[in-house]
């Protein structure tokens, strides 16, 4: 699927009056896919990526994992091994409100990733967090079952599948 977020904004804001919501420009681009989209699956975690591994171990065909990591810059929530697992299980990508690590390796994996930055330290593993609830960051609420689109120009969220 080929799309441009500016074109989607133009088309769907004018036609349907704010079908799309634009996330604040805060993310760095990682992964082998510069653009990706899919149905939103959410996690709300803080410095513990146990639930990320559980989610990426599931079939992610047509889905994007949106991780609300509280914006923490103190550890990474996704590394190369989790990116490989996600790609293997069909995930289109991940939007991480936090950090990743192994960025050079992740850039060689066929998955799209947006994250605030990189951090070399791994997270704790206590299994804490919540799944499939509305999360808010970047001025936008991400609801499970909605759709996210990311490319070089930004990240947008839509209540319905746009393309």
Describe the structure.
This protein is α/β, with parallel strands linked by helices and 163 residues long. The chain has one domain (5-158): Ribonuclease E inhibitor RraA/RraA-like (Glucose Oxidase, domain 1, 3-Layer(bba) Sandwich). 20% of the residues lie in helices and 35% in strands. The protein contains four helices and twelve strands, in the order H-E-E-E-H-E-E-H-E-H-E-E-E-E-E-E. It has helices at 5-16, 50-56, 80-88, 103-106; strands at 20-22, 28-30, 36-44, 63-68, 76-78, 93-100, 112-118, 130-131, 135-137, 140-142, 147-151, 154-158. The strands form two sheets. Strands 1, 2, 3, 4, 5, 6, 7, 8, 11 and 12 form a ten-stranded mixed sheet that branches. The chain has a two-stranded antiparallel ribbon with strand order 9-10. Strand 11 and strand 12 (154-158) form a beta hairpin.
**The CATH C-level class name:** Alpha Beta
Q: Average pLDDT, to the nearest integer?
A: 95
CATH topology: Glucose Oxidase, domain 1
CATH architecture: 3-Layer(bba) Sandwich
Which stretches are poorly predicted, pLDDT < 50 over at least 5 residues? none
Tell me which oligomeric state these chains represent: single chain
How many H/I helical runs? 4
Count of DSSP E strands?
12
Please state the structural category.
alpha/beta
Shape: globular
Q: Tell me the CATH superfamily.
A: Ribonuclease E inhibitor RraA/RraA-like
One letter per element, helices H and strands E, the order comes to HEEEHEEHEHEEEEEE
Number of domains: 1
Write down the Rg: 14 Å
What composes the largest sheet? 10 strands, mixed
First-last Cα distance = 8 Å
Helical coverage, percent range: 10-25%
The amount of beta strand, in percent, is 25-35%
């Amino acid at each position: 699927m080929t799309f441009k977020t500016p074109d989607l904004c133009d088309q769907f804001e004018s036609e349907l009056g704010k079908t799309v919501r634009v996330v604040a420009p805060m993310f760095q681009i990682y992964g082998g896919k510069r653009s990706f989209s899919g149905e939103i699956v959410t996690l709300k975690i803080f410095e513990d990526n146990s639930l990320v591994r559980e989610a990426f171990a599931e079939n992610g065909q047509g889905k994007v994992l949106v991780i609300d990591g509280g914006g923490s810059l103190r550890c990474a929530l996704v590394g190369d091994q989790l990116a490989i697992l996600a790609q293997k299980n069909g995930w289109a990508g991940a939007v991480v409100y936090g950090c990743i690590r192994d960025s050079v390796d992740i850039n060689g994996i066929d998955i799209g990733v947006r994250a605030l930055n990189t951090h070399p330290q791994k997270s704790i593993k206590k299994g804490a967090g919540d799944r499939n609830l509305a999360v808010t960051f970047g001025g936008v609420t991400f609801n499970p079952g909605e759709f996210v689109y990311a490319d070089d120009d930004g990240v947008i969220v839509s209540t319905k599948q746009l393309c």
